[in-house]
Specification:
Layout: H1 2-5, H2 9-22, E1 36-45, E2 50-58, E3 61-69, E4 73-81, E5 86-89, E6 99-103, E7 108-112, H3 116-137, E8 173-174, E9 181-182, E10 189-191, E11 201-203, H4 205-218, E12 260-261, H5 262-281
Antiparallel strand pairs: 1-2, 1-7, 1-12, 2-3, 3-4, 5-6, 6-7, 8-9, 10-11
């Protein structure tokens, strides 16, 4: 189905519309062979609280952004290559329902659909795109993924020492290895996590010890250097600095349109166009 839609006029119009909605803040999305498979609003679990984000699923990438004006303008565009993605379904828990994890080597996060049916549709379409990509490229799915960050409001005290209470002065930080919310003292070390950054990142003391032991066992002469995190005690290197789509106050919408997936709709549209052309030629 996707192969048949590659050169369709409807697909080209849709991609152009997505580019226009992001404006100059987004990167060009039209590429040879790219197809817009579907779009819709999902609730993304951000560092501070769940927030509504507009998602666009293409046959090779997943794009999402902040909603400025619904269906008209988005910003903070994020582009995720689907070859790097692994999905993991989440069990319903309290108010968090119909969710799953989107895992990549550089960033992992949870999203939630409005209904169980929408979750099933999103996951099925994303999985199919990933499967087709890997089959065509012959690549293997990635084996390592970044940790999912624990939301700030789920930790009132440091998850490492269990003692330090978070205040305006004692700010929350996230270990980039395990995702735990930790205090500055318990995350005063850095480690080069190659999948996430070219620079050493903040890690908690427990992960630092585990990584050090692993390096000793491997005896790798090219192992990354380790140094103390600058400004750890004063709140430097804040976790929020790395979650660039977490800076607005737009929360999850109670009402929104159902997600739209185009494969079936295009079949009907193209059939109608074909029939119209035939009728016009008679």
């Amino acid at each position: 189905m996707v192969d048949r839609l590659v050169n369709s006029e409807a697909n080209a119009r849709r991609i152009a519309m997505v580019e226009n909605c992001f404006g100059s803040s987004g990167q060009p999305l039209a590429e040879q062979g790219r197809v817009l498979v579907g779009e819709g609003v999902l609730t993304k679990m951000c560092r501070k609280k769940p927030k509504a984000r507009q998602f666009f699923l293409f046959n090779d990438i997943l794009v999402y952004g902040n909603i400025v004006i619904n269906k008209k303008k988005y910003n903070k565009q994020h582009v995720i290559p689907l070859e790097e993605v692994k999905l993991e379904s989440l069990k319903d828990e309290g108010q968090h329902r119909n969710g799953w994890l989107i895992r990549t080597a550089s960033k992992s996060f949870a999203v939630y659909a409005a209904t169980a049916t929408e979750k099933e549709e999103w996951m099925a379409h994303i999985e199919k795109c990933i499967e087709d990509l890997l089959r065509k490229s012959g690549k293997q799915p990635p084996s390592e993924h970044a940790a999912v960050w624990v939301p700030d409001n789920e930790a009132t005290v440091c998850m490492h020492c269990k003692k330090t209470q978070f205040t305006v002065l004692n700010r929350r930080h996230h270990c980039r290895k395990c995702g735990s919310v930790v205090c500055g003292g318990c995350s005063s070390k850095r480690w080069l996590l190659r999948g996430q950054s070219s620079k050493p990142l903040r890690v908690c003391l427990q992960c630092y010890d585990e990584l050090t032991r692993e390096r000793s066992r491997d005896a790798d002469p090219a192992a990354p250097p380790v140094k103390a995190a600058e400004g750890a005690g004063s709140g430097g290197d804040s976790s929020g600095d790395d979650d660039s789509d977490d800076d607005d106050d737009r929360v999850a919408q109670e009402k929104h349109d159902e997600p739209k997936f185009y494969s079936d709709g295009d079949k009907t549209e193209e059939s109608n166009n074909h029939a119209a052309k035939e009728a016009g030629g008679k």
